[in-house]
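Q: Start with the shorter request: fold the first protein.
A: Done. Sequence, then structure:
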Amino acid sequence: MSHTPLLDLIDTPPQLRALDKAQLPQLAAELRSFLLESVGKTGGHFASNLGAVELTVALHYVYDTPNDKLVWDVGHQSYPHKILTGRKNQMHTMRQYGGLAGFPKRSESAYDAFGVGHSSTSIGAALGMAVADKLACKSNRSVAIIGDGAMTAGQAFEALNCAGDMDVDLLVILNDNEMSISPNVGALPKYLASNVVRDMHGLLSTIKAQSSKVLDKLPGAMEIAQKVEHKIKSLASEADHVKQSLSLFENFGFDYTGPVDGHDVVQLVGVLKELRGKKGPQLLHVITKKGNGYKLAENDPVKYHAVANLPKDGMPSENKPAAVVKPTYTQVFGQWLCDQAAADSRLIAITPAMREGSGLVAFEQQFPDRYFDVGIAEQHAVTFAGGLACEGAKPVVAIYSTFLQRAYDQLVHDVALQNLPVMFAVDRAGIVGADGPTHAGLYDLSFLRCIPNMVIAAPSDENECRLLLSTCYRLDTPSVVRYPRGSGCGATVSDGLDTVAVGKGIIKRRGSRTAVIAFGSMVQPALQAAAALDATVADMRFVKPLDEELILELAQSHDYIVTAEENAEQGGAGSAVLEVLAKHGICKPVLLLGVADVVTEHGAADKLLDDLGLSAAAMRQRISTWQQSL
């Protein structure tokens, strides 16, 4: 066990604020040690939390939380915040069923001001809180803590643009560690990395932090110091690149401070105290190191972005050779992409900052000129793909289901209405497990199938995934192939680029009386349930267009119809089957198996699917109970 005598005395921020400022470096060291031990056992987001320890301590030391609001962007870095806000003794339950969520969650703690999970929402949310407090004549302060990766997204700049033109007290902290999950891309990170700017502002910040106590006691000295500071800025701005750097955030209407060393907790406290007393929009630029204090994570923050656990040798178990060699759906996609690109020079791959997660590492290495990471900018990714398609390219957008939600307008207007041949490889469709409801892909079938010109495929195993990827890529229309996280049943995957008939399903098992019309990941559990029920199972392959002929044949030859999908019941694939039956005037008992109208929890995927009635055993029981009730 870690030796944490000071941290042991801290359960809530008021106790933290009772410490002497000189004790804060020790507290930060103990907090980092506790964090290493905790995440080492439970797994979870790792490098980002190590990099935010001192900043978290300083924020809770200076600000009157929870009256003052801290809004953490994405929330990958919120573990130190949870430890200091009454949840230290629950950290062993992190991301487990019934335990702490991996992200800030309003229902979990009064200190979690805003529920997050997706990037670039913090500034807008904190601005809303600041405006509400102003209208209510409250003196509370709102702080948005956003990383340089999340700052590349358009929503962050929309909020900056709005806030800078408002008379509101708001602090935006730009936590600059030169990383998102992968290394940052684009012009903004290059701008932030300007050594000249960092040196100049680092000097100014150091002068201000170290001399404030003395200057406060000398009549007129602070005014003189401020004039000197402005003079230094004026001289520095004579160089064009420095001038641009000094003016970017100031042109948005923010008073810029920094860069400041994000691992000097005492200096951070001094700067934050000064900023808390200032009026209007403020931006503090903090420099941190992702994985700080753990050399393996410092040297490879991508690998250590999240870990399963940390054994004694320091290597995350997920990075060791796996005992089971079944390829994941992501790996199947990555291999197919490389093979298809070798066969067709028109293929271009696009990702919104998810190179590793979407399986694009090998593609980038083999086809660097045809690989585009556009940063955390899902909307731009889709419109960019549309533009490529207009000029004869065949773009493939690799994106998670939960992140595709953020680009719905572009999906409709910039791709589908123009009937452009953009293929979307939609990963993490369905339940995702420990990441919880913000990352669950439970709505894509519902929001996709109403879009004209769209083809939607849902593979039932790994080989079907490759077949359907090849099939949809050949189309001259928008298409989606949606597949779950992790591995399937271990099907042998071909190495060809074969295709199947669009909109045609197949019978996987013949039975009597009951027909289960299954989609994607639900085919395998449906087959297991059907063995005990003597039911027919159809693998529909496509959600749109539906195989109406197969549905009608099953409806006419069976007494009971069951649909199964790992998607919301409302408006999903089951609803599409009901529409077909209604159109043809067929009235048969139909049971829809999908995710009910609830917000799902976090935890092991198998446990969640069983609770939702979508495991093989739960399906069998639900079907039997339903039939007995008729």
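Q: Next, the second protein, separately.
A: Sequence, then structure:
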Amino acid sequence: MQNGKIGVTTENIFPIIKKFLYSDHDIFLRELISNAVDATQKLKTLASIGEFKGELGDLTIMVKLDEKAKTLTISDHGIGMTAEEIDKYINQIAFSGAEEFLEKYKNQSIIGHFGLGFYSAFMVADKVEIITRSYQENSKTMEWSCDGSPEYTMQEAKKQRDRGTDIILHLSEDSLEFNDAARIREILKKHCSFLPVPIAFGKIKEWKDGKYVDTDKDDIINDVEPLWTKKPADITPEQYLEFYRKLYPMAEEPLFHIHLNIDYPFNLTGILYFPKIRNNFEIQKNKIQLYSNQVFVTDSVEGIVPEFLTLLHGVIDSPDIPLNVSRSYLQSDSNVKKISSYITRKVADRLNEIFKQERADYENKWDSLKIFIEYGIITDEKFAEKATDFVLLKNVDQKYFTLSEYATLVKEGQTDKNGNVIYLYATDKQAQYSFIAEAQERGYDVLEMDGQLDNHFISWFESKNQGTRFARVDADVIDKLIEKETKRKMALTTVQQDLLRPVFDAQLPKDDKMHFNVVFEPLDEKQQPVVITQNEFMRRMKDMAAMGGGGMPFYGQMPDSYSVVVNGNHPLVAEILDEVEKGYGADELKGINKKIDTATTDENNLNELLKDKKEEEIAQAEKDKRTELSKKLDELRKERTARLEELGRGNKLVGQLIDLALLAGGMLKGESLNKFIRRSVEMIEK
């Protein structure tokens, strides 16, 4: 029997292992099974080169839980260890101190370094035993035991076993969560589902006499030859789907898949799937599983693939990805960047291939692909360069176009007087129907841009295509969205517009969250009498602020600003003007207008006299006269405005036209909608 101390100079190695080396305690089982797999694989290698002449036999790794004894045992039939090897790999943790070790190996994998993978067992066990026998001839079964202190015992076992190793964990009181078969099965499924050596935990159960009972068949929890290890030519489409269902049992069927297989300048295999993404793409992340030689590492792969590719599902397996001590976090180095670039290129090439070969199917799936591709375009320049060949634009008639196809379609008809090509778009076909219909009557095409990332995509596109501008179809009247050389004459004079502005203002909604500005435009008399539009720039800024983007959150606090566009050439507007002028009283209106004109003239004349004087050179009498004229003019205008607003509030036609415009924009609701309906009925009855 051998007693001794594990080769460390500090006695706090186990607390440090427990606290720092592994981010999750359930990693211990992965490490111990990985060691068992390594031992098994090494034996198979030795057999293949003739150094092991014996029978390999059943190489299944057995995991056994004794809930009564609170022990967990991992048994393999691999190469085993001699007493000298136990001393070398278990006892001699060759470093001068724990802290120095952590510093030395913080940027590289410790798997295989001095048995640290084995020592993860002390995270959950207050005593660990090893019973092992080497594959070498005439070897003896050895027993090793340690209670978590630097002291250990090692001796020849009284009872000999066959080749291989048993690791027996006596679970500590604070780790009894692992003294549960369901918990162990969960960990095995998570970390060991695709290891290359069979792993058995318990027996397969069958339904008998009204309950599940164990059979005599071992329950193998892993697939030793997962799909990504096979050649794509040997895999059927149905097998790809079956594998996806195995990975994501509750998910909808994917759109496409990509099989990765490269051995130079690095090793990487895997299968990536394009999932159906609905509304919130954030919940789709962390669905790619990263493996190293079929050992699960993590599903947080931001360091190994570009941000936009984290929306994909599937698996990546590479022994060349550098890992830290816990195998849980990726390190940034040139190899990782190469892998990332390769995956990006493969994804882009695959999408381009599908688009060219199966365009109809690609278009059918575009609504699900769109958010993924737009995300890639706005976050990854290299992907954006390739994606211009297969990104699509869809119009409100459900027709699809590549960027170049659409540019050709609208260039002639939708180029404004300044030479800019205007891409009209709608975000809600139903709410913006009247605007869409008017644009289409002019022969214009309207895109449907109702996705989460469309605002960002539009900004990206405009930055790359000078002379092309997107405009939402309700951002202004159509004649202003795509301005042409010819202009219509306005039927209303400036004075008449000033008269009508308070009339329309009087019946606009009063809401701190909305601001309305009445403007007059010389539209076709057949166009709507009143239209409510929202400025493109301000709306975009508010939309981006609402998504937490744009870098200008103050836009989110600003009220929504709308233009109430009154068609100065519409007969109904002329009718309203006539009613206002009559309602005010011709003589009364002329009288106050004359007073305003006189006061304005007097103010202008005085300002002309004073324009060359500095403020200190102006006499007090002149200052008083200026103040008096300004006050008088202000009072006269307020008097006229008050009277016009009074007339506006009593004008049912004005209210009806404004409500119709609000209704067309989806802004007429609640009590206002009810009043509109009642008024409409009254006007019909008359």
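Q: Describe the second briefly.
A: Residues 122 and 148 are 6 Å apart (CA to CA). The chain has four domains: 2-220, 227-369, 392-481, 494-584+651-685.
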